[in-house]
Amino acid sequence: xxxxxxxxxxxxxxxxxxxxxxxxxVSNMNTPGFKGQDMVFKDLFYENQTGxxxxxxxxxxxxxxxxxxxxxxxxxxxxELRETGSDTDLAVDGNGFFVLMEDDGNYFxxxxxxxxDKDNILVDSVTGAEVAGISADxxxxxxxxxxxxxxxxxxxTHIDFTGTLNSNMDDGDTYTIPDDSDDPDEAAIxxxxxxxxxxxxxxxxxxxxxxxxxxxxxxxxVEISEKDGEVLATEELRYESGTPMExxxxxxxxxxxxxxAAASIEVDFSNTQMLSASSSNxxxxxxxxxxxxxxxxxxxxxxxxxxxxxxxxxNGESVDGQQVALAIFQDIQSLELIGDNLYKATSxxxxxxxxxxxxxxxxxxGGKVELSNVELSQEFTDIIIAQRGYQACSHLLSVSNxxxxxxxxxxxxx
Length: 414
Fold this sequence. Notes:
Blueprint: H1 2-27, E1 37-43, E2 46-52, E3 58-64, E4 67-74, E5 81-83, E6 90-93, E7 97-102, E8 105-109, E9 114-116, E10 122-124, E11 130-134, E12 140-142, E13 150-151, E14 158-166, E15 174-177, E16 189-192, E17 198-210, E18 217-226, E19 231-240, E20 243-244, E21 250-256, E22 262-275, E23 281-284, E24 296-303, E25 308-313, E26 318-323, E27 325-328, E28 336-339, E29 342-344, E30 352-355, E31 363-366, E32 368-370, H2 376-412
Parallel strand pairs: 14-22
Antiparallel strand pairs: 1-4, 2-3, 5-32, 6-31, 7-8, 7-11, 7-27, 9-10, 11-12, 13-24, 14-23, 15-17, 16-17, 17-18, 18-19, 19-20, 21-22, 24-25, 25-26, 27-30, 28-29
Helix pairs in contact: 1-2
């Protein structure tokens, strides 16, 4: 009976500690990237007694002495991925951990609550540790957008036109881009100087007539000016049998501004034609018919499934950035939990660093975080088991105590 007291007492302690594990799981059910834990029980030492029966056979008596905690096991199942509305929040869909770099070494996490700090370096929003990227040669590096908060302006260098000039127009008649429609901005020609300032050009065609002595070559005068009325260039365009003539199919425009910004723009009409039509219709050629962009400010950041960062700017430009690193371990159970959603590698388990989608690593999902994988239904079940186990051990302890008390009472009556 004394042994029963020790066994039941050990069981009560074990079930109490199991309840601690459940309590930690439940309290972290809203912790991003948290992985629930399960406690593994083990039986304690045994008393093994061997004896002889009357018939000469041997018997073995094994008496156990309760239970204890063997280890805690981390649940590795995937948590739900939930959108956060933040471009820099990341989640791992599959295997792998984000790598956080501190002065005393690297730490690992599944909680991807990241942000750019005042130095434009991507850091963990909880600990402030730097999020590791991975270079082309596989080396870990900090992820920075320093110098990338804006995108530089590019001056316009060319405008390529396509379309038709109406040969039925009378000599001296004009056709202007943009025309006098209800929404002339739809046909407006917007160009940019070297400072990124926008200018609007007006292009006016005037039918002049045939080249002297020719019945096939037609002259059109083209005048290019700014919207404020300043004429920038006036040149001849010539068409032979409706096709632009070489050396008469382009105009060079020098754009300048009071600020000192400038642009040298080649205006190309080689893809236009002159035909008998109901009206003229000349427009900028699709697909790179005009270049030049204003200064752009950073408006959003995207991350691909491979963890590649893309920076998007207000001028429509996009720039590729660095790539987020991931780490993988042969035995996740060997990692040491240290709080703040962080794991630390032990000396027996070295991490392998790589890019998402390689060496068994999962994908990176931008704008989302992984939630805890704690399931309340499982925790409630574990609570009931721990409670009933504790009650049973407690009842067993009480019964053993009562039996010992009765034994003492019997001994006292002699």
